[in-house]
Amino acid sequence: MSTREVSAMIKQGFISDQTLSFSPSRTTATSSRLYSPSSSPPPASTQQSHPQLTESIRHSHPQPTHHPTLFEMMSQEQIHETNKPIKSQSRIFKLLSDFRNPKGPGNGLSYVELGSGDVRLTVVGKDGFRVCMDVHKKILAEKSRFFAEKLARKDKENREILHTVEISECDDVEVYVETVVLMYCEDLKKRLLGEDLDRVLALLKVSAAVMFDTGIMSCLEHLEAVPWSEDDEEKVISILSELDLQDSAAEVLQRVTSEPSTSTRADDIFLKLLSGVLQAKDDKARREMKTVISRLLKEDASGYDNVSKDTLYSLCHRCLSSLILCLSEARGIDDSRQDRGVLMAEIAREADNLHWIVDILIDKKICDEFVKVWADQKELAILHSKIPTMYRHEISRITAQLCIAIGRGLILVPKDTRFSLLSTWLEALYEDFGWMKRACRSVDRKLVEDGLSQTILTLPLLQQQAILLNWFDRFLNKGADCPNIQKAFEIWWRRAFIRQYSAEQDSSHLQITVCENPK
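The structure corresponding to this sequence follows.
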């Protein structure tokens, strides 16, 4: 600390004084040791890890004691000063300055009429740093149920006695000092304005430890009103749970907890949210919220189960109905009509919505039923073939999406369903593949080709042959606009002509010997 700061502190009165002072060493008088209300007394041989409270009792006419000046204290406590952050010391000096001058601007303290203090309170940190304050028994007893109990003693002649109280092994001396100062404050709400959340939580813990009810409620009111970051939420929940304040903390936690809801209520909320996204009028906002909701659903597997299967499938059928309606209108529409572009955009929009819901079904591992639903869309597939490729290619993304999931083992359906899926939609996927590559930045060509290859190779060999021979002719004519599933073709070739496997075992060398057991 600079000479200028020392001079300033001396001018402010931080010298020998009966109201407040710093003590350079521990009290040596015989004392009875009381432990902090937040902990129980450990064995005598164990070093204490919680703040301890020591009380020395003096009669009403105590002998005068010498209180060292700030310069003396700083000289004797030099070792502790090097370990104590300067900012923390400055804040303590400010607190003590406010405490010594209660009528100062913005202090909100009033206790001048009480006269000089009758309790010597010493707060000692774990590093030995200590602060002494002459406080008033009346204030401590009124504000703190803990102090009221400990300071209610009288001597053998039933006379009032003076006390010396020491709270030792404190994690943060500043917080304990400020808690005592708050007991003198007329408007705690105003006093806490501008304090950061960590500070208020620390004050709450100390207030709870000394049963300072007004301080507890003021801290809780502050926490209830100020914003929290997500990291703050964890701190608040943890500390309030640790303190076990019961109903007092319920209002604070309302922003992160709710009444237990039935699955029906939660499902209604999800249905409303998902439906809102599907019907959004702004395409950019719709895409953004799809991304947000998908990410949030994937963050917590337990929360993900809140969206029921019935809700998701009802949305799928709604999208399918809209697609069929749009394609039916588009099939007979005149190219010269001005609303043709709007209708085609609606087709792409509904296909994109269905793609999103199917993605959720896959992640939720309940997409097997939809594969059969999609395979049975014969009418939709016919309508699809009547629409120009530039407008319909979004629909084929759904087929590609299912093939990728099947190829990765994320969807397990019977071989008849897999073959039906390809029978209904493979030609459409071939036709739209070129447009999908060019127009859809989210389409990974290799991913689609690998998924399609794996799906084909899960079928019986004769079905593989029919599909791959058809692809062979198409690929020779279309080239890059056709999916390149050459790998699947090679595997089928080896299965069919090189590694021929017969389901019927050769039993020509099988010998059977019959032995008769003698009677």
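Residues 5-50, 56-67, 69-84 have pLDDT under 50 and may be disordered.
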